[in-house]
């Protein structure tokens, strides 16, 4: 976070002050009629997530933990990618020898924009909405890494897949996440003359590898 942004947020916190006790009580007493947790088993959650992702136009690959490097190589080859940028904390045992991986150590957005794409992990995935949640840990990287490149390849483990949004938010909150990004398929907008255009606010192509064991 920039120094200017930090200063602005600190000024807001000082101006607002701590939450009064009565507001805390009112918040806790607010009725919430939405679903707090899911009912599907693990296999059904994976099927729902894959269905939603494919409906959004993302590519989906299922693999085992042992075959993860081969699945990454397959997904990258299908998109014609030979060089991907990765977060500094991404496990090296995931990486196949057939692709060049470049650690994201540059502050240059232009460098990311000129690259072929990014490979990252995730914090959670939401089956009901077909969303990937990034909390920008060392295995997920900074926001720019998954917003600037034209291609994003994301690894999702079965244990990270939940059914509902509240479950995902509780998970990232428990991990101490302060900033999250949610991804529901390749970036797209229809603001320009009501014509759907992909790749305006993020990657034009998204592939997800589901690791099922």
3D structure, described in words:
The chain is an alpha/beta fold and 213 residues long. Helix content is 33%, strand content 22%. The chain is built from 7 helices and 12 strands. It has helices at 3-16, 21-29, 42-56, 68-78, 109-114, 143-147, 165-174, and strands spanning 59-63, 83-86, 100-103, 118-120, 124-126, 131-134, 151-157, 161-162, 181-183, 188-189, 197-198, 205-211. The strands form 4 sheets. A 4-stranded parallel sheet has the order 1-12-7-4, with helices on both faces. The chain has a 4-stranded mixed sheet with strand order 8-5-6-9, sandwiched between helices. Strands 2-3 form a two-stranded parallel ribbon. The mean pLDDT is 89.
Short summary:
With 213 residues, this protein is of the alpha/beta class.
Average residue-wise pLDDT:
89
- Tell me the span between the first and last alpha carbons: 36 Å
Strand order of the largest sheet: 1-12-7-4
How many distinct helices? 7
Q: What class, by secondary structure content?
A: alpha/beta
From the alpha carbons, calculate the radius of gyration and give it in angstroms: 19 Å
Regions with pLDDT < 50 over 5+ consecutive residues? Answer: none
List SSEs in N-to-C order: HHHEHEEHEEEHEEHEEEE
Indicate the proportion of strand residues. Answer: 15-25%
Biggest β-sheet description: 4 strands, parallel
Shape: globular
Helix residue percentage: 25-40%
């Amino acid at each position: 976070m920039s120094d200017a942004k930090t200063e602005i947020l600190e000024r807001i916190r000082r101006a607002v002050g701590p939450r009064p006790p009565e507001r805390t009580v009112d918040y806790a007493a607010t009725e919430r009629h939405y679903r707090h947790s899911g009912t599907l088993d693990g296999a059904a959650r994976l099927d729902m997530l894959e269905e939603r992702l494919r409906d959004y136009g993302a590519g989906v690959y299922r693999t085992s933990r042992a075959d993860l490097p081969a699945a990454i190589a397959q997904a990258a080859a299908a998109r014609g990618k030979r060089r991907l940028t990765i977060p500094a904390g991404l496990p090296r045992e995931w990486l196949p020898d057939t692709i060049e991986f470049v650690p994201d150590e540059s502050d240059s957005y232009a460098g990311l924009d000129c690259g072929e794409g990014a490979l990252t992990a995730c914090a959670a995935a939401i089956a009901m909405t077909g969303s990937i949640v990034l909390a920008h840990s060392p295995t997920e990287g900074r926001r720019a890494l998954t917003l600037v490149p034209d291609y994003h390849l994301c690894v999702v483990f079965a244990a990270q897949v939940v059914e509902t949004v509240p479950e995902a938010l509780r998970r990232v909150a428990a991990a101490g996440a302060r900033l999250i990004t949610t991804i529901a398929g390749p970036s797209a907008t229809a603001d320009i003359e009501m014509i759907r255009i992909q790749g305006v606010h993020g990657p034009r192509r998204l592939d997800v590898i589901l690791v099922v064991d």
